[in-house]
Specification:
alpha/beta, Aspartate Aminotransferase, domain 1, Aspartate Aminotransferase, domain 2, 7-stranded mixed sheet
């Protein structure tokens, strides 16, 4: 497809024909999880119906077919994110596991100085992070005695990088930050942060959970060391995600889990381990899920990520204008489309977000309410929670109009 034909795309998503409470389904929660096209659903079903077997264990036909499909999905995903080799793609169950895998590599006794962490060393994150990119580093700091530091935010929902040289210092060993905020929609300047980290010799991990599904991401061009992302936000199944890492770093990292498939030899006195990515994929992997994610990558590649970006930018501009025209609505985060994605969090004065969400659900409008696993961001902006509408390649202006009508009803009910 050379341009985004939203009506044709919507026909690929069976769930979008549903009704909720007698109203057409308006799905505005893609930042939480995306819907799945028939092509992905069919790929998973066909795998189970025709090729189901375990991988890397059998020489029979089904085992070979399953292994080829699994490793073929790895190749597709590597190509989608610009990885130099599929060996740099480690399958995980989600972004959270991918981030924890990296955190596990650091210790006070690591043989590799890049992963040696102790008192006096620093880990840097941001106030904007999803909990999955805060808690693992808090736990690592507690285990090693390292210090956790973070960048704050401006009132506009941007990272405050004015003191970047004081936050990222020669003591910094790792900088971990979100590419595209799941609550604010802010797209952060990876190049600026990564450049400072390189100056001091720190490793850089980027949480790409929201960026990889929505914007073209080339991991080789980002200038970072690790990128975590997840399948269910990019049209793929749940239970499958990935960690991209520079091979030399993956090769220096210890196993995350022990078990079958990740070993070279096992004796009662010791074990040797496979090279990456197998070293980090102990046990039976999410085979059908990987096949489904490969199909999702095929779908997004056929649509074209540039077309996805253009569509989402137009939809977001439309939604920002529409929501800001409603009295008592406050946008939390950037109010323009500059360096922001297709996620808008807002509050309605005097109404708890849970009440907003219930009334919108009565109208068939599906949004997320709460702190979106980003409670420090809510605290920063002085709100207990927000209502979040998040869009994707299948979102239409009619659905934004339905959202605004629902918010107007909220105001009338709670007037």
């Amino acid at each position: 497809m050379s341009a985004l034909d939203v009506e044709s795309i919507r026909k690929d998503f069976p769930i979008l024909d549903r009704q909720i409470n007698g109203n057409p389904l308006v799905y505005l929660d893609s930042g939480n999880t995306s819907q799945k096209p028939r092509q992905v659903i069919d790929a998973v079903r066909e795998h189970y119906e025709q090729h189901n077997a375990n991988v890397a264990r059998s020489v029979h036909t089904l085992g070979t077919e399953s292994t080829e499909a699994f490793e073929g999905a790895r190749e597709k995903i590597a190509g989608f994110v610009g990885a130099p080799t599929a060996a740099e793609i480690v399958f995980t169950k989600n972004s959270t596991e991918a981030i924890n895998l990296v955190a596990h590599a650091f210790s006070a006794v690591s043989d590799d100085p890049r992963f040696r962490l102790g008192p006096g060393d620093e880990i840097v994150v941001t106030e904007m992070e999803h909990h999955s990119n805060i808690v693992p580093w808090q736990l690592l700091a507690q285990r090693t005695g390292a210090t956790l530091k973070w960048f704050g935010m401006t009132d506009e929902g941007r990272l405050d990088l004015s003191g970047i040289d004081e936050v990222i210092t020669p003591r910094t060993k790792l900088v971990a930050f979100v590419h595209y905020s799941n609550i604010l929609g802010t797209i952060n300047p990876v190049d600026v942060i990564a450049a400072r980290a390189r100056e001091v010799g720190a490793l850089v991990l980027v949480d790409g959970s929201q960026s990889v599904p929505h914007v073209p991401v080339d991991v080789s061009a980002l200038g970072v060391d690790f990128v975590a992302f997840t399948g269910h936000k990019m049209l793929g199944p749940t239970g499958i995600g990935a960690l991209w890492g520079r091979f030399e770093l993956l090769d220096a990292m210890p196993p995350f889990l022990g078990g079958g498939s990740m070993i070279e030899t096992v004796s009662m006195t010791g074990t040797t381990f496979m090279p990456p990515p197998a070293r980090f994929e102990a046990g039976t992997p999410p085979i059908a899920q990987a096949v489904g994610l490969g199909a999702a990558v095929d779908y997004l590649s056929a649509v074209g990520m540039d077309a996805v970006v253009a569509h989402e930018k137009a939809i977001t501009a439309y939604a920002l204008d529409a929501l800001q025209s409603v009295p008592d609505v406050r946008i939390i985060g950037p109010t323009s489309t500059v360096d922001r994605g297709a996620t808008i969090s807002f509050t309605v004065e005097g109404v708890h977000p849970h009440d907003v969400g219930q009334i919108l659900d009565d109208e068939g409008v599906q949004v997320r309410v709460g702190h979106h696993c980003a409670r420090p961001t809510c605290v920063r902006f002085g709100v207990p929670a927000t209502t979040r509408a998040s869009f994707y390649l299948y979102t239409t202006t009619d659905e934004i109009d339905a959202l605004v009508r629902g918010v107007e009803r909220v105001r009338k009910v709670f007037a």
